[in-house]
Design brief:
Largest sheet: none
Structural class: mainly alpha
Helix content: over 70%
Radius of gyration: 17 Å
Oligomer: single chain
Low-confidence stretches: none
């Protein structure tokens, strides 16, 4: 396990965006918020683990799908968390196929972006290097 500050900064930026989006409603909150949520989780894991983008993307997508599919069941009631607002926010309360599409598009986007950046940085290693004068 190694800490990667760049991915952690990206996570914090996505989290901040998610917090701002949480104050809105409609498409931005529900669909774009889900799109960004998986990207945020991806960045969080990349901050601490050096996992290949495709493997991590599949893992994050599986986690998101699992949480979404659990919304078809009284999962929070079974584990005794249905009365806690934060648990309902984190796990959601309403299943939607649109959420699955948003998660999928978010993961496909971040995998593609990450693969492009990794390739670019391997061929241009001095791009993110700061040199004081």
């Amino acid at each position: 396990m190694t800490f990667n500050l760049k991915y952690f900064i990206a996570f914090v930026l996505v989290l901040g965006t998610e917090l701002v989006i949480a104050t809105t409603s409609g498409f931005i909150r529900h669909t774009f918020g889900d799109f960004l949520a998986v990207i945020g989780v991806y960045f969080l894991f990349k901050s601490f683990f050096n996992i290949e983008p495709i493997k991590l993307g599949i893992g994050v997508l599986a986690l998101a799908f699992t949480i979404e599919l659990l919304q078809l069941t009284p999962f929070l009631e079974h584990i005794g968390l249905s009365e806690y607002r934060m648990a309902r926010i984190a796990f959601g309360s309403t299943f939607s196929y649109c959420d699955l599409i948003a998660y999928s598009l978010g993961i496909l986007s971040i995998i593609k972006i990450d693969l492009i950046l990794i390739k670019f940085l391997k061929t241009n290693p001095k791009v993110l290097t700061y040199q004081s004068q």
